[in-house]
């Protein structure tokens, strides 16, 4: 019970700091994703230690879910007509940053 | 890893089956929540065993998160204005329904078991109501009105009351069992402290979010922020062992009141992601219910259920009568408060943990409480949601919460699509294409081939590179131009999902294709037209809601107009004297009568409130008024009031509304004008002999409008 609920708090903090990092990098005109990952590094096992190895392991399903969603959304943008016409062009994709923040953030520690 | 993926699969299965169960129950006209819970029971530990106890424990965070979101959303609907206006009413009802249930159940269980300490424990548990299942029904049926508002407020406050009663009952029962002195700190102070801390936590997080919100404009980041806030709030509440529903309600209340406009986006965004979480939450509620415990609740359980229902019904009725609530609240509030789930189970577990340390008798009590609550919860979760539906439907509040979204959901693209539109055909020469673009108000044109198959959209952008090459004008045809791909729609698509596509598009129309499979172009859907439709329909619906609610209960004209505030035969020289005479009727509720009279005359000098047909409605909103004041004066000879039709006025209604009640003025005026539209009413008001007759004319007209 205790451990489980702490996970909510950790996810919450991860999301918060992630947005913060993203904002800072946005101001520096660097893609926000870089910010998410760096915040992940800072919080992760090697530096801040907020996300221990165990916690990251527990959050694996979330990670898989986020990756799954990203795959799904990319797939949704790719119409067969589009392939016929242009081949691969991924500039049309609108990815949801909130998913990305979680996904990349967690990816960083693994 | 293996385990991790299995969890995703299980969650997915839970959501899928949950939706299926919900759909079946929706067809049976039973709230979908019941379907989710039943599916939960089927896939849960006691039947299929797909969700084992371990899995359910593992998923506890999801559960807490869902409760947090529900608390947050309830909080978002509770505006401070509401509490200013009805706070006292809510409080009286809460005390009555909570205490009546507590006392009745305590009494009957004590009578049955012969032990007061068992009685008070069950009494305290009985007072709790499940906000989640109750509110979910309100959301499913899009209810709106006084009953809905009262339910929201009561289930929110109920949580706090149950905690206080539980703290008291647990300490009291311990004293009775062990013979020790009553522990005042644990019995009274601790629960109050816990509630205050939970609320404080929500407010602190809310303030931080508010500050961040001021810097964020991007919608997606708003969602991230909101979810982050709920997660941190829920996590901290659990860390400090505080009530997470209460603290998230406080968070929601704080945000929706501190930043009513900014936070609107937050609640919309969160609402958008909630459906799968709710489904999963209720499936898990069902999965946790243990069917084998139901028979174990025994007679005690049946008495508990029966007397809890009597307590809730009777208590809310008496409370609502005492608080002079609207008729709908009086009649139907009780029936909506039967659900019981997480809060009661949580408290039952807490009782088990505390009492099992107090020797064999304590352990027996602990086990008894767990078994009975587990069994009764199943029962009240099954009957609770349908009862909520019954209550709100009887009160006529179903489907009253309309937004543009709902209008969109009701219509499909074919209702408002345009068929005859300007097109570009592939066989057209560049010259023709350019002239089409140049000579039109529009900037984008659908491109179709000879079979009317849609190929894309052409705009100035697509041709600008070759536009001025004179030689090409006859050489290049539209077929050579690469059009832009855009979202398309079909006649069958709902306007709601079509509208979602506009969000991603910069152009203001969607090409309508025959079907998902065929590319045949049949028309376009203009964004402007969709918007116009929604405004139109929403206004219509709101107007009819107001029309229905006027005359029924609450602050109707009948309730506002006191007999003492009627001047049957007004004999004055002019407008000024009439206003002064009428304002003089107001009692202590208006502190500075002269100032208000001046303000009314000032407004009159700008525009006369004589609306024709011999009627004038002078009105003002003022800080000097404590309560809404309505006066009526009749002049048999007629009074010059600079009416729009130039006629003298005979019927004068004066309205003074406190500055704080911004919406009250329009409501009263709306009701008045509806009343006076009827020529019969106007004639009877003119011919009435005395104040009593005038009151009964208004009373009768109000009753007719209602029926």
Sheet/helix structural class of chain B: alpha/beta
How many runs of DSSP E, i.e. beta strands of chain A?
0
Radius of gyration of chain B: 32 Å
Order of helices and strands of chain A: HHHHHH
Estimate the strand proportion of chain B.
Answer: 5-15%
The poorly predicted ranges of chain A are: 1-5, 89-96, 106-110
Distance between the termini of chain B: 64 Å
State the assembly state of the protein chains.
heterodimer
- The mean pLDDT of chain B is 81
- Average pLDDT reading of chain A: 73
Strand content of chain A: under 5%
Low-confidence stretches of chain B: 1-5, 550-554
Radius of gyration of chain A: 16 Å
Helix percent band of chain B: 55-70%
Total strand count of chain B, please? 11
Number of domains of chain A: 2
**What is the terminal separation of chain A in angstroms?**
25 Å
Folded structure, characterized:
The complex is a heterodimer of chains A (110) and B (707). Chain A has 110 residues and is an all-alpha fold. Chain A has 6 helices and no strands. The two termini of chain A are 25 Å apart. Chain B is 63% helix and 8% strand. Chain B contains 28 helices and 11 strands. The N terminus of chain B is likely disordered. At the A-B interface, helix 1, helix 4 and helix 6 of A face helix 1, helix 4 and helix 10 of B.
List keywords for this structure.
heterodimer; A: 110 residues; mainly alpha; 6 helices; 0% strand; flat; disordered C terminus; B: 707 residues; alpha/beta; six-stranded mixed sheet; three-stranded mixed sheet; 63% helix; 8% strand
Brief write-up:
The complex is a heterodimer of chains A (110) and B (707). Chain A has 110 residues and is an all-alpha fold. Chain A has helices spanning 2-27, 32-43, 53-58, 60-77, 80-86, 97-109.
